[in-house]
Each structure stands twice: as structure tokens, then as C-alpha cells.
Amino acid sequence: MINRKKILKEYLTSKEYESIVQNATKFSDMSLPVWHLEIIGKCLSELSNFDLIRCIRQDVFTDLATFEIIERIDEHNTPFYADVDSLELMQKLSSVNSDILSVYKSKLDRIFENVEKNGLIDLADIWMFDEQKETYLGYINIIKNKIN
Predict the structure, then answer these.
(1) Which residues of the chain have pLDDT under 50?
(2) pTM for the model
(3) Can you say how many angstroms the Cα of residue 137 is from the centroid of all Cα atoms in its chain?
(4) What contacts 24+ positions apart, CB below 8 Å, involve 98-107?
(5) Which residues contact 13 (CB under 8 A, 6 or more apart)?
């Protein structure tokens, strides 16, 4: 089990850490290296949904971000806890490679069963268009295919 209170810096080698610091210093006028430096001073539970989305998008701490997203969905007992970010969180999860997702197969199966059994997609009030529901279901199916 991953410690959600462990500072991300602790997951890095000293060489990786130095590289991040040097990049942030050298490119201090660019948001990505500065953001990368900022998040390594945080623990998983302190990261925003946007940080988690960005981690996966930038392929930074992907395994940890995947774990944290799944934990948050599980804690709230719904994948729609993040309101407007819910669609993008599921999109990013669907883009994670199957080796990482498969580690969380039982939890993901339980989450998806809850969504389907309790009609959570129709109950969620985050949809601006009906097509978004279909898109969301598509992301769920991509993940199911990756873990089965």
C-alpha cells in the first residue's frame, strides 16, 4: 500500500531530485518545471485533482497519481466526487497503461459495479451534454478492457 502522506520527493533518487531543481531554476519562467518542483514538496493527499490529471498527462508520478485518483473515488464511493473534473480524471485513468491499472483491478471492478448497479451516471449532475455520459462510459470500457 502506498503511503498517501509521504512527500513525493521521497520517491525520487537524489539525482532525479537535483534534475528537477535544476530545471525549475533554469526555466523559472516556464510553468511546467516550476509546477514539477512544487508538487514534489507535497504528499499525494495534498495534490489537487488538476495536479493528478497533470501528473498523468506529463507522465510524472503516473503510478502514484493513478493510485490517488482510485483512492479518492473509492473514499467518496462515487467517481463523480470531483464534479467537473470527473470526466477528465476518468479520461486520464483510461490513458494509463494496463500494467499500472491491473494492480487496482479489484478496486476498479468494485467502483464500476457500483456505478452500473446504482445508476450513478444518470444520477450525476455534472453533465452538460448527454454525449458526455457516453464518453464517460467509453472511458470505463477502455479501463475494463485493459484490466481484464
Answers:
(1) none
(2) 0.88
(3) 17
(4) 98/146, 98/147, 100/62, 100/63, 100/66, 101/66, 101/143, 101/146, 101/147, 102/146, 102/147, 104/66, 104/67, 104/70, 104/147, 105/147, 105/148, 107/70, 107/74
(5) none
